[in-house]
Amino acid sequence: MEKDVSIGLLGLGVVGSGVIQIVEEHQEELVHQLGCGVKVDKVLVRDMEKARQIEINHDLLTTNSDDVLANADIDVVVEVMGGVDTARKYILEALKAKKHVITANKDLIALHGPELEKVAQENGCDLFYEASVGGGIPLLRGLSDGLVSDRIQQVMGIVNGTTNYILTKMDKEGQSYEDALQKAQELGFAEADPTADVEGLDAARKMVILARLSFFTNVELDDVDVVGISNVSATDIDYGKKLDLTMKLIGFASRQDNQIDVSVEPTFISKTHPLAAVNNEYNAVYVSGENVGETMFYGAGAGSLPTATAVMSDVVEALKNMLLGVNGKQFVVPRFKKELTPADKRFSQFYLRLKVKDETGAFASISDLFNQLGISFERILQTPSNGDFAEVIVVTHQASSENFVKAMKQLDQLDVVESVESHYRVEGDA
Amino acid sequence: MEKDVSIGLLGLGVVGSGVIQIVEEHQEELVHQLGCGVKVDKVLVRDMEKARQIEINHDLLTTNSDDVLANADIDVVVEVMGGVDTARKYILEALKAKKHVITANKDLIALHGPELEKVAQENGCDLFYEASVGGGIPLLRGLSDGLVSDRIQQVMGIVNGTTNYILTKMDKEGQSYEDALQKAQELGFAEADPTADVEGLDAARKMVILARLSFFTNVELDDVDVVGISNVSATDIDYGKKLDLTMKLIGFASRQDNQIDVSVEPTFISKTHPLAAVNNEYNAVYVSGENVGETMFYGAGAGSLPTATAVMSDVVEALKNMLLGVNGKQFVVPRFKKELTPADKRFSQFYLRLKVKDETGAFASISDLFNQLGISFERILQTPSNGDFAEVIVVTHQASSENFVKAMKQLDQLDVVESVESHYRVEGDA
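Output (structure tokens, whole complex):
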């Protein structure tokens, strides 16, 4: 039996509290896995006197970061404080002091992952961040180890629980976006300022991490096309139902040839697709690999204990490596030059809702326009005219983004089209 | 750049061919992961002249097992020949010759896993079998590493693609069991003798492996209660639809306190549960952990390339360990004495279909009987009588297996009950 190993925590919010709880309650499992115990040695907090969700020995708390980062007893630093600049500074200090680092911080990894991985490797340290995407779902290691000899072609992810909760309420209970958002805020699934969630930024950060891991290239946040859900209307969700489509905020990361394409956008998913059944605050990531075919990972994308479970799986991995003397293998080693897929090579189906003048030949001129761009229709819904206008909903066959954008522009010029009400990507159509 | 490592194959069927294909086509990925190449050195076959699905250098083939097992150049032996006795003998030989062993053989691991793990450890060798459950889904390592500091409470798995295909056809297309089975045989999803699949034996073997891994105890095949799908009728599937229930062959492995319970049986799953959306030949395993909550792993449960992907993830793991000099860590280290949950502590909801005489008070005496056993009803469906008999379908609230079995026996004695037509476990009810 070896001497206990020590971990230091930066932050004691929901995830930090979960880590403390797991270390206490699962000491026996940890001893079984590692052959030694694990203890929390120091916890950096901002306010010593703040009331905590868990009972913790007051002597473990400190407001001085050196008590963790320059503490010779501490082997692994767990960063669960959030934020970017200070977290980055502390993690760099920890790595340079030869401490292994585990973080749940998706913002930080999305922005500075490559830099931190490089410093980790230079110092022979592990830097793991399983909890940064998909909360407790064993996802990043599943992708990097489980599919190690495969080539991932596409990742489609519901990676933000707040927006999935809102869209589920809109779909299942016919709520408006505003009501569903308010309900999510009441339940603590959405923050007082929900911008990062509902505008797709949180999902975009996670897709950056997934895309790097899947395609071995340094994807950055600027490479991601992002559309949020704040303009999604109950009207479109209703039409979607009639077409057996369910609205989800989907993060895409695709590779074809050696070009990649990463985006986040509200998307109509065919009801028969497994992602359509992922409801409420749950997350899921649907992976298409050249050999493995289709695989999906599903689970709680957030929450104290699920996220802390992922953090602890990283801690155990780093400690195992430490006991074996084999740290410093990077999660992501970039090896391809990044090249983005141009719009004429990005294909999908599209949903489109138009307000059309009630004139003879109106639909003919619309379908003519699409025809000239080589876009054909899979399904058409036309609502009865109110005397002046009718609504026309079409679902196209596969079309390039470039041609679809052209069609949108030309439709705006068309006299019979009063307005393009909405358009969405469509996926998973059988 | 180190010297190439060599693997030897026992068997060259669908999975073996997939391994050869991946090694050839993904050499670059393997070099990237390992810092050296991987080559297939020898392949044991039964018949040198048999036509193969893939092109392979004839010099690699042999009918002499010593060319693999006693070959000093070979570091890792991949067993994909199937069967139990010969496979066991070869694997024991390989381990004693200090070769790491990867196998996709669920029958062998279910029957002899603990013995083989012990011999592997005694010889400082890796023995991995990710492909034995869930084909290409990164499942076993997800459970053992991803949830390392969690306590798994329940595993519910759709782990047999053949039966899931048959049940999907019955549910979605109203086919009879016989027609769906024939269709599955035509498509190659079911074998000419489908017994092992349709009677639940294949699923039981996989549940043994999952239960050992989840609960750290030596579960054996005899511990599993097994009911197959050959008696599932279109009638019950139809009633299920009316009750928003979908029939699936579910493998259960549950732990409460330190008692465990493992079974395989046709089960009605609530349509809102993620497992209800797992269709056709797909597999999925739904895991409930004390901390992580609910997680699901989904993907192709069989097939040449998906299964070979899982085999190759094990090969890479063993080779990494070898290059680092850290082999011999067991997948499953049993540490609890096995104790089975008695029937009075096994709870679930139940579906029950009765043929009942068309008499006043018939339903009253049935509900009286259940009432006396403390079993209450959640839902009741009664069909119009044909003059003599009516069908009564009930879904109970949670009840113990013991009490439900008692109820079945007493119903048989009840004068108003012509017959108990069918009964099934019900899960996932919200």
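The domain at 140-300 of chain A is CATH 3.30.360.10 (Dihydrodipicolinate Reductase; domain 2).
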